[in-house]
Amino acid sequence: MPSAFRQATRALDTALTLGFKGLFEIGDLGVHPALVTDDEVGDVLLQRYLEPVLALPGGEAIVKTVERYLVNDRSVDITARELAIHPNTVRQRLGRFENTTQRSLRDTEAVVELWWALQRRHLTTP
């Protein structure tokens, strides 16, 4: 019983924090319960992926471009249309991100960690 209660509590906390509606079990929420509760990992990933980029001139635009690129299934053309910028500008911003973080956006582990950092930023930014 304690395990079931703990899982139900984590599912509820996760759903409330992220604004999910409906009925959920812990397994339905994927990695989101860890994202919501593991502040230390989230903070380390923020420091690794976002803080160095945000310190650059135009860093906010780079982060926004990278985030939209991930949302758009890593499509440069869709991201360019969505942001109303040239595809070469998207490529240039992605390159600046990769050069600054020393991580490739073609590396699955880097993309997962970056996604976590972006989600953590949304959770901690008012």
TrEMBL record:
Database matches in Pfam families: HTH_30
Domain of life: Bacteria
TM helices/strands, residue ranges: none
InterPro entries named among the record's database cross-references: CdaR-like_regulators (IPR051448), PucR_C-HTH_dom (IPR025736), PucR_C-HTH_sf (IPR042070)
UniProt cross-references to Gene3D superfamilies, sorted A to Z: PucR C-terminal helix-turn-helix domain
Domain PucR C-terminal helix-turn-helix, first and last residues per copy: 63-119
Protein's recorded name: PucR family transcriptional regulator
Top-level taxonomy: Bacteria, Bacillati, Actinomycetota, Actinomycetes, Pseudonocardiales
